[in-house]
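task queued by scheduler; priority normal; single chain, no ligands, no partner chains; default sampling; output format set to structure tokens
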Amino acid sequence: MNPSARIDIDAPLDVVWAVMTDTERYAEWNPFVERAETAQPPAVGNPIVLHVVWANGGRTRSPERITALDAPVTDPATGTTTALMSYVYEGLPARLGLVRGVRHQRLTQRPGGPTTYETVEEFRGPLVRLAGPGRVADGFRRHAEGLRAEAERAAASPREG
């Protein structure tokens, strides 16, 4: 099972992207990843430690490495804008070959439409069931809902500066 979530966000893709990549502010809106430690600004190749909060209140640290940080780009033929952030799990189970995971977070916005946020964790390895795909899927859903609320709030607020 590859945990996933999808949600439409009534905000421009560049606003959603800005919220996603501002890892220092995750505690303000993200009920799943309360903190993400990485060098600023985030960059491909950088380690990132995610401080995860499960629905039952349990917490864990998840060491990852950023593998893709594709800023928004618009296809001139279709007018569709896309962006991608990915990272790979580097914890002990991964180093032992027991559980491997790569999380992708994709944004897509067609002209005049909402921004669609999609995330999936591509799990593999003999102990994937122990990684708790169901609780990860729940976390992804809570993350998506928090992202939507924060991005829509940001899009509705006048720009500071």
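post-processing summary
- The first strand starts at residue 4 and ends at 9.
- The helical segments are 13-21, 26-29, 92-95, 133-156.
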